Amino acid sequence: MSQALKQRLRWWIGGFVALTLFFTVFGERGLFKIYKLNRELHKLEAKKKFFDKDNIKLSSDVQKMKKERAFQERSARETLGLAQDNEIIYEFSD
Prior knowledge:
This protein is mainly α. It has helices spanning 3-26, 31-67, 69-80. Helix 2 (31-67) crosses helix 3 (69-80).
């Protein structure tokens, strides 16, 4: 094999390796893309945990609202500002 052919073969192999490495790191399914998707997955899992806890609390509140008269009254007072007939409500503002 001649020296020129060896040199050309080295350049082709080197180019192929460089191109493969480039697409492995920066390609559509490359390492950077996998890293970004992994970070996004962790953020979404954290949001899911938060919403699961909130959903459990709201389900509990719905059950209490259906069954407990005292909870219904307290909820109406807090959220709607309702009062009974003989009550006076004082509001203090800064």
